[in-house]
Amino acid sequence: MPTTIEDVAIDTNSDIEGNHAFSLLNQSGSDQAIEVTFEANSSFPSDAEVYMVSKYEEGSGDSEQTSALVATATPNAREASIIYSDETQYSTDVDSGTDVKVSILVVVGDAATGADLGGTLTVRAGSHDDFNTADQ
Fold first, then answer.
1. 37: burial class by Cβ within 10 Å (0-12, 13-18, 19+)?
2. pLDDT tens across 40-53, in order?
């Protein structure tokens, strides 16, 4: 059976620690809720998809908190968010001095070579009240 991008996105055994797009380090001195949001540009091809995969190793020990969280921007939902917060199910705040690793995977579908696959990546920390609820 061939491996799909969906299989890769939900594979919590992948080497995200060594192969991630970026890392978010909490240097604030206190635990913080963190949100990472991707919003596709209006010219983003309708059959393309973006997967954000994150991993936070220092969860409270529950498998839901130490495994990867996945968010998807698809043709029907062009915005996706990953939220680490004590107030969100299967999640936890990010402890001071620890980091979250984030990878971005793109399925280009039938997009033409040179198609604009851009979007806006936003990172927020602090109050959960300011966060989106696009994908939790």
1. buried
2. 888 888 888 888 88
Beta bridge partners of 36: 82, 123
Q: Facing residues of 24 across strands?
A: 100
Q: With b meaning 16 or more CB within 10 Å and e meaning fewer, what string describes 81-110?
A: bbbbbeebeebbbbeeeebbbbbebebeee
Query: Residue 25 corresponds to which tokens in the numbers above?
Result: 């380090």
Write the CA distances from 60 to 64, 66, 90, 96, 100, integer angstroms. Answer: 9, 8, 11, 14, 14
The mean pLDDT value for 25-52 works out to 87
Strand arrangement, sheet containing 119-126: 79-84, 33-40, 119-126
Tell whether pTM > 0.85.
no
1-15 b/e (C-beta count within 10 Å ≥ 16 → b): eeeeeeeebeeeebe
Q: Residue 112 class from Cβ within 10 Å (0-12 exposed, 13-18 middle, 19+ buried)?
A: exposed
For the chain, give every domain's residue range: 5-130
